[in-house]
Amino acid sequence: MSDLMPEGIVGFGRNPMSLPNQLKLTQFSYCLVSHKFDDTSKSSNLILGNSGVVTGVSYTPLLKNPSMLPFSGYYYVQLEQITINDKIVKIPHKILNTDSSGNGGTIVDSGSTLTSLAPSLFGPVANEYIAQMAPGQRNRVVIGELSLGNMVCVKGAGEKGMVIPEVGFQFKGGVKIELTVGNYFNGGSGLLCLPFVNVTFEVGLTGSGPAVILGNYQQQNLYVEYDLKNERFGFKKQVC
């Protein structure tokens, strides 16, 4: 694992000064290697422009952005359901939609490490995750404050006999991103954590922002495509 600091940060958002806008790109894509660097010794690929014919890509529409800054520079998608072991989590769907002030909704952000969930989403997801654990293993689930925020973790998740519930995010059009153990975050002390952090604000307050921010832990080993010409977001599971 490299401990070198990056030389700079490149902006790929929708704002006028972003690299895609300056280069007048109609598409860009990437495939993020595992954070554990266990799949390949190569770095992640970034393709500026059309990547050619890529089969098996699932698409969901990119939504119209709120006009207010900084929300106008984000990539919004319509998250419709969160599932655990294919059971739909009961969540307040109102905050999955974005209002004119930029509150609510879901954005994709490769610059965010973990996925952020508003409290009214994080709570139901955490509770259903525990409910889907085997009865004798529910005491292994820890919900607590780590260095990066309030997270759901499992003690000894890699031990023989441990069964980890499958978590899925379903978007408009029926397309779905499913998490594997490889998407989990090492919380230390034998804890393996869902790549979700409970944000400190509740959606609905002025300026609070998106209810869900899909971070790069959730994008590991996915081919991710931003089709700006056709206003759609695509992804495909693969080893990057």
What is the annotated CATH architecture of the domain at 61-220? Beta Barrel
Tell me the name of the CATH class of the domain at 61-220.
Mainly Beta
Going by CATH, the homologous superfamily of the domain at 61-220 would be Acid Proteases
Number of strand elements? 18
H/E series, N to C?
Answer: HEEEEEEEEHEEEEEEEEEE
Strand content: 25-35%
What kind of sheet is the major sheet? 5 strands, antiparallel
- C-alpha geometry: globular
Give the end-to-end Cα distance, rounded to a whole number of Å. 16 Å
Question: What proportion of the residues is helical, as a percent range?
Answer: under 10%
Mean pLDDT: 84
Enumerate the strands of the largest sheet in spatial order, edge to edge or round the barrel: 2-1-17-18-3
| Gyration radius from CA atoms, angstroms | 18 Å
CATH domain fold name of the domain at 61-220: Cathepsin D, subunit A, domain 1
| Stretches with pLDDT under 50, minimum 5 residues | none
Number of helices: 2
Description:
The protein is mainly beta and 240 residues long. The chain has a domain at 61-220: Beta Barrel (Cathepsin D, subunit A, domain 1), CATH 2.40.70.10. The protein is built from 2 helices and 18 strands. The protein has helices at residues 19-22, 119-132, and strands spanning 27-31, 45-48, 58-61, 75-77, 79-84, 87-88, 106-108, 115-117, 141-146, 149-155, 167-171, 176-178, 185-188, 191-193, 196-198, 212-214, 222-227, 232-237. It has a 5-stranded antiparallel β-sheet, with no helix packed on it. A 5-stranded mixed β-sheet has the order 4-7-16-8-15. Strand 5 and strand 6 form a beta hairpin. It is globular and about 55 Å long. InterPro entries: Pepsin-like_plant (IPR034161), PEPTIDASE_A1 (IPR033121), Peptidase_aspartic_dom_sf (IPR021109), Plant_Aspart_Prot_A1 (IPR051708), TAXi_C (IPR032799), TAXi_N (IPR032861). Residues 1-236 form the Peptidase A1 domain. GO terms for molecular function: aspartic-type endopeptidase activity. Keywords: Aspartyl protease, Glycoprotein, Hydrolase, Protease. This is Peptidase A1 domain-containing protein.
